[in-house]
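for the writeup, i need someone to sanity check this before i put it in the appendix. the sequnce is what the collaborator sent (i think, or maybe the updated version? ugh). structure was predicted straight from it, no edits. if anything looks off just tell me and ill rerun, i have time this weekend
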Amino acid sequence: MADLIRPAVRAGLWRWRETLLGLGVVLLGVWWLNTFYSPVQWIGLAVALAGAAWAAAGWQRARFRSTGKGPGVVQINERRLAYFGPMTGGVIDIEDLGRLELEPAAMPAPHWVLSGIGGQTLEIPVNATNADALFDAFASLPGIKTEAMLDVLSRTPDARVTVWRRNHPALH
């Protein structure tokens, strides 16, 4: 059955799966809104709004996803981020991050550069296996602008770009 769909089409559908499911839920809610009467119409409206939120979140995730066929593996366990690569690797706690940058000139693919408060750095290729799990980790950083991060990732700048930096409160 899986052979009926070409691999490239299947990969595209899988990448955009959350957006497509959210749009399906929107359609279901709109159908309920237009077909049934009073109480079910309100439920249909709620379902349509929830589907729209799901589709919007899926849109952001799909823009962040890559092929996942790059070097190394990303693992996140209890807010601890680990990267196991062929040449480098390391572990850093998400709470200890001080700066997040995108290095477009890194080879073989652009890298996320995570700098810790204590000076440690961790470089992760954007196309590493399970790198899409970084979206949730990055989205949980205080004050990060997710849309700006996705914009930087999509246009691949010429020089290193700081996507997020931890704000340190002034002492006086």
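Strands lie at 73-77, 80-84, 89-93, 97-103, 111-116, 121-125, 161-165. The radius of gyration is 20 Å.
thx in advance!!
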